[in-house]
Specification:
Nucleotidyltransferase, domain 5, alpha/beta, disordered N terminus, 16 helices, about 400 residues, 3 domains
């Protein structure tokens, strides 16, 4: 049972939709003893705060299921002074499938699930973290669309017997058309299809570059995110994703809790004489875990001391995937310490880190660099200086003369 449920007099379950909500007021310490005092069906969502002012008492707890607008609603209610909890939708969804369902039953079920303690509570991100999460997911969707557009183009070319060399550029206007015209004699209809595919690919690539430029600017402007770039295998996208998904690092008391949150701790399933099955899939934050696995793969290809450790582990265990997962866990532990501020000053910025900084600054558009009041070269030098000395400095502009090392 949730520890807070014993001290709560009433729980108000909220089944929230985009335009309306249904509420059930429950009184009692356990699901079995809880009495449904009253239900309210299909109340217009803009009236939620005024409705709570009339119906909620001091000490009441408002509970809702995690959904599209639940975080916004929770922040809105908390700003109005109401204690609010958001419950994970996975368990509540299973309860809904096992029983009859309508909005009133859902509201009652949400309240009883909290009293029973069967549904995990979800952390409600602050407004800044929510904004970063929205930006992070927009970038990931743009990357997915760009990959799909390129694959569709290559698939069509392959169907026509055209195989391009690895690394051929299809997003450069003019060059791609010239390359494809030389590869084969196309009919008018085929060329129209190619033009449409190239147009779609360029639009997707421009969207990806747009979001990545914004992410690079966010990382360069935030000392906490920039500090993560020190880690081998971590660049602007991974650093920004860590900040967006993790949010307040202090909600993880120790590194292993962060490892578990991301799903990088091995889970297993073994009962009786059954075969042992385990791995890191099926739990945790898949969106961020995927990025950390990619970062670990890059780390394994490097000359970093951690890469040597990973290669020895791979040789001993005979599994590349196991070594990559272990490196991803090491990265996660290092991220926890960096975000907690437990780090030391670098003796120097090596060539690897210098190249990384150049690539991050290279993602910015000229107008974004101009907003920082400097040119690209000065921005690179100041960024390297900040990476070396620490992260206690003025955020904007990044070249503020008063910036100082930790």
């Amino acid at each position: 049972m949730n520890t807070i449920s014993s001290s709560v007099q009433r729980v108000i379950g909220l089944d929230v939709h985009p335009d309306s909500f249904t509420a059930a007021i429950l009184c009692g310490p356990t699901p079995a003893a809880a009495i449904v005092e009253k239900t309210f069906a299909h109340v217009p969502l803009p009236r939620l705060v005024s409705w709570a002012a009339k119906q909620a008492r001091a000490g009441d707890l408002l509970v809702l299921e995690a959904s599209g607008n639940s975080f916004h609603i929770a922040r809105q209610l908390r700003a109005a002074g109401y204690e609010t909890r958001v419950l994970e939708s996975n368990q509540l969804g299973k309860l809904k499938e096992a029983h009859a369902n309508n909005d009133k039953l859902s509201a009652v079920r949400i309240g009883k699930a909290f009293l029973a303690g069967t549904a995990k509570e979800v952390w409600v991100p602050d407004a800044k973290t929510q904004e970063r999460r929205d930006l992070f997911h927009a970038h990931r969707k743009a990357v997915k669309r760009a990959v799909q557009a390129r694959n569709r183009t290559l698939s069509f070319l392959s169907d026509q017997g055209v195989r391009l060399k690895k690394g051929s550029k299809l997003t450069a206007a003019g060059d791609a058309e010239e390359l494809l015209r030389q590869s084969k004699a196309w009919t008018t209809g085929q060329w129209r299809i190619i033009e449409g595919l190239l147009l779609e690919l360029r639009q997707a690539d421009q969207a990806r570059a747009h979001w990545r430029g914004i992410i690079a600017q966010e990382v360069l402007s935030d000392p906490l995110l920039l500090s993560l770039v020190r880690l081998c295998g971590v660049r602007e996208v991974v650093a920004f994703g860590l900040g967006a998904i993790i949010g307040d690092i202090h909600r993880f008391a120790e590194p292993r809790k962060l490892v578990k949150y991301l799903g990088l701790n091995p889970a297993f399933d073994q009962s009786g004489a059954g075969k042992w099955e385990g791995g890191i899939g099926g739990h945790g934050r898949k969106d961020l875990r995927v990025l950390l696995i990619e970062a670990a793969q890059a780390l394994l290809r490097s000359k970093d001391p951690a890469a040597r450790w990973g290669k020895r582990l791979m040789a001993r265990k005979g599994s590349l995937n196991l070594a990559v997962a272990a490196l991803a866990r090491k990265l996660t532990v290092a991220v926890w310490y960096l975000m907690m501020g437990r780090w030391s000053q670098l003796e120097e910025v090596d060539r690897r880190l210098s190249i990384k900084v150049c690539k991050i600054v290279g993602q910015l558009k000229p107008e974004a660099i101009a907003q920082l009041g400097c040119d690209a070269k000065a921005l690179r030098e100041k960024t390297k200086e900040l990476l070396q000395h620490g992260r206690v400095y003025v955020l904007n502009p990044i070249l503020n003369a008063n910036s100082a090392g930790a």
